[in-house]
Design a protein that fits this description.
8-stranded mixed β-sheet, 453 residues, Flavocytochrome C3, Chain A, domain 2, Purple Acid Phosphatase, chain A, domain 2, elongated, 4-stranded mixed β-sheet
């Protein structure tokens, strides 16, 4: 055989050897847990990691070499609710659409922000949802006649809902037998679970043996000390980085039925992580969106300065810190009461953005209307004006304070002897401590807890 024939034979042999790997291999990439960190601040080199712009660059590069790339996001990307947070949510959704995710697990931050804020064009996944929700129940990927099943679990311990309402998410005890039966029928070549929950729930899925790969959202809050695995009594599973500082990935060889590491730092189950350091360039296609975001943030900043100035000039409410100067003993009693932590109660339940809840947990949220039996002449000009605007604009008016019970103090502050706040009647208490909002309320037992002169 001539040299040309030998070269042709050698080339065909090489192609034949490569075919099983290339035809039946998919790169799976996992991220999430952005928690509003859309771009690193760059203050210190050791903390300069992550960001949507770098993530976009790496995903684009990986897709160029791995067309069969499946990007899976474990959610928890949203920041805390705020006006600037609204701008971030828009930007995050824009980036996610560019990332072309196969599925996005609904995370606790998305839940807290409000499910109605989720982009319906994005494949949000919640496999243990009740019939009252309409997210994706599962995601099926096809790879040359073989299919992958992707499910997502969000623990009820991470979401808030009214205890009297039917549950919006199903428990692990309910879904394990349901999912086992389904996966037995569908017989996927690979089954993946995107998980957010407790160790007990995780161990239940590990015992079931129904998933080939489980990847967890991060339970770590310290981005300077990344923890990349969750340890249970049944072993370790990979966990994505917190604050979106890296991409977890692995190559699935469908023919061999294995996943192998493809990044710089090995993780359990054949995965690895690539850190998004400062040597990763910003994606030029996504950069204009960030420039728009920066302009919107600047405009919001100056708008809020005007709003804060107007509020301070016009609002009848001044906040309890001002009262402390003359009423130190009463302030101390208030500080040790649950009233002084009322806003934090809403935060733990993810309801600190709900006006119906805020009304009883901040000062002067709605237009102020004085009691019919007490209308101070000095405060008549303040009727109809508000107090609390947001935690960022009016931090001095969060929690239940002196003015919730005694009325606005601005006029009293200007003329203490002439403008004395009224002593509140029991009706002031029951305007909030009523019905299902405070079913155990009893004035005789509650009043001693906050009694003061």
């Amino acid at each position: 055989m001539g040299s040309r024939g030998q070269l042709l034979t050698s080339g065909l042999l090489t192609l034949f050897l490569l075919l099983p790997f290339s035809a039946f291999s998919t790169r799976f990439v996992f991220s999430g847990d952005l928690r509003g960190e859309i771009k690193p601040c760059g203050c210190a080199e050791e903390g300069d990691m992550g960001g949507l712009l770098r993530q976009a660059t790496v995903l684009r590069e990986q897709r160029a070499t791995s067309p069969e790339l499946a990007y899976l996001n474990l959610g928890n990307n949203f920041p805390k609710p705020s006006e600037q947070g609204n701008l971030k949510v828009r930007l995050i959704h824009t980036a996610l659409r560019q990332f072309q995710p196969a599925a996005i697990l609904v995370g606790p931050n998305e839940w807290a922000y409000g499910l109605n804020t989720l982009d319906p064009e994005l494949p949000y996944l919640l496999s243990n949802q009740s019939e009252r929700l309409d997210f994706l129940g599962r995601k099926r990927l096809e790879t040359d006649g073989r299919h992958v099943e992707i499910l997502g679990f969000l623990s009820s311990s991470l979401v808030y809902q009214n205890e009297n309402d039917p549950p919006l998410v199903k428990s692990v005890e309910v879904v394990v037998p349901e999912w086992q039966a389904d996966l037995t029928k569908t017989k996927p070549a690979l089954s993946i679970l995107l998980f957010r929950g407790t160790d007990v729930e995780l161990e239940a899925f590990q015992r079931s043996g129904m998933f080939d790969l489980i990847v967890s959202g991060s339970t770590n809050d310290d981005e300077l000390k990344q923890v990349m695995a969750r340890k249970t009594k049944r072993g370790e599973i990979p966990m994505i980085p917190t604050k979106g500082q890296g991409l977890v990935s692995g190559m699935w060889d469908a023919q061999a039925g294995t996943i192998r590491s493809s990044g710089e730092m090995p993780l359990p189950e054949g995965l690895s992580v690539d850190w998004l350091r400062r040597d990763v360039v910003d994606d030029p296609e996504l950069l204009p969106e960030f420039q728009t975001y920066n302009m919107e943030v600047k405009e919001l900043f100056f708008t809020n300065l005007d709003r804060m100035d107007k509020q301070q000039q016009e609002s009848p409410f001044v906040g309890s810190t001002v009262c402390q100067a003359c009423h130190a003993e009463a302030f101390s009693i208030w500080k040790d009461s649950r009233h002084s932590h009322a806003f934090a109660t809403l935060e733990t339940q993810g309801k600190h953005f709900d006006p119906e809840c805020l009304e009883c947990h901040v000062v002067g949220l709605k237009s102020w209307k004085p009691s019919p039996d007490w209308v101070s002449p000095a405060l008549k000009s303040f009727v109809g004006r508000t107090g609390f605007l947001s935690p960022q604009l009016t931090p001095h008016l969060i929690n239940v304070q002196c003015e919730n019970c005694h009325g606005p103090a601005r006029a009293h502050l200007a003329n203490p002897s002439a403008e004395k706040p009224p002593h509140p009647a029991r009706a002031v208490c029951t305007s909030c401590h009523v019905g299902s909002h405070s079913p155990s309320f009893n004035f005789k037992s509650y009043w001693p807890k906050i009694r003061h002169k």
